[in-house]
Amino acid sequence: MKRLLFFITIISLFSCASDPEVVIEGPEQAGDTIQKNNRLDSLEEQIKSDYDMSTVDDENSEEFMESLVEIEKKYGEQWDFCTCVIKNDSINKAFSSPVSDNEFERLSARFDVIDEKCKAFLVQNPNVTPEERAKHEKKVRNCLKEAGIR
Length: 150
Known about the structure:
- By secondary structure, this protein is mainly α.
- It has a domain at about 1-10 and about 60-150.
- Helix content is about 65%, strand content about 0%.
- It is built from six helices and no strands.
- Helix 4 (about 80-95) runs antiparallel to helix 5 (about 100-115).
């Protein structure tokens, strides 16, 4: 059971943001960009969470925002990336030591809350390249470092 929870937590943390690419737009692309920006603005207005969209890859931002709106409808507001990293680290440490049945139940309930508030990270692109994984790991380390955990 501990391994399953650890595995789920690790998967929930694997999110990655790529550096935005610079695109020079021609006249025919400008209209598409305006429509996309209007669509993104509309989606941003529907999002309840105080979510830092700069962590989302520009190529997938519209899809992510659509998913986030749906996730919020079902699960409520989502925590930001660092909050999820810190909470998951804490729950993993708690599960890694021997716990009583009562403590296990309490931790399981807390894990469910954390999982519900961090659903947004499950819809981001999987880390498929070593560079993306390294960038994600650095981002996680920075969150933990800023929180004084590592």
